[in-house]
Amino acid sequence: MVKLDAMYPTSEQDHRQSGDAAHGSAAAYVDPRTQLHTGLGRFMAGVYGWMSAGLLVTAVAAYVVSTSPAVMGMLYNSAYLWTEQGMVRSFSGFSVLGWVVLLSPLAMAFFVTPRMGNMSRTGAVATFMVFSALLGASMGHLPFLHSLGSIGGAFLITAGMFASLSFIGFVTKRDLSAVGRFGYMAVIGLILATAVSWFVPGISLGISALVVLVFAGLTAYNTQQIKQVYLVHGDRDNVAIMGALSLYLDFINMFQAILHLLGGSRD
Questions:
Q1: Summary count for the chain: helices (H), strands (E)
Q2: What does each C-alpha distance from 122 to 2, 69, 225, 241, 251 come to in angstroms?
Q3: What are the extents of the domains in the chain?
Q4: pTM of full prediction above 0.85
Q5: Residue of 216, 205, 213 whose CA lies nearest to 160
Q6: Which of 55, 108, 222, 251 has the smallest CB count inside 10 Å?
Q7: CA angle 99–159–264, rounded 5-degree value
Q8: Chain segment 223-246, per-residue pLDDT in tens
């Protein structure tokens, strides 16, 4: 549990500082809040660093899965992945194990990651990396749906959008709480709409466009929230790791939606 009292000097410290000032002491008192503002840049660099590490783990996991026929055969329906010429450049379904891998990050998001604030730093980092690896493994089929050019283009577009929106969230003086509330309510609707799109494929492009818009807003909101939490609490209770996870999810969701909008089938 985060406690604010430890951030500020105790009455004994106040008395000592007052006494020093009264006797002309050269030692100057530095408000902890000033120290927090001074360290904000370093803290945010750490957040983006952890986020980048998560993206790297995801990319490596996706690459390992996509280049291993044995793993692909376990995660995806092999009847849809093989022909006389070799591996089919298309994707049609997950195996039972594939569904487990696909749904594991969602289960972690609901039941494990909310507890990261109470974990040790090592435990929080390990949870983030495992989450990133599982999500990467569930994305191993993407190279069989899209060309490498489309994947690279989607990544660059996402990176540009993310950087711009995160910067806006960091520097804006406007309270983005309303954006956050609307965004998280919209996410629930998008999850339901995505389930419907499995049976009505024609609406999938519209859903992807909405996903981009919603997570664009959440990127700015989450950046502002991470900054504000740090300025109040400091880097406690794994704030940097949890902030990195929230921005990581914004990036991943925008990337997948943009990739879907770009198309670029390998067939």
A1: 11, 2
A2: 18, 33, 23, 10, 24
A3: 32-262
A4: no
A5: 216
A6: 108
A7: 60
A8: 999 999 998 888 787 899 999 999
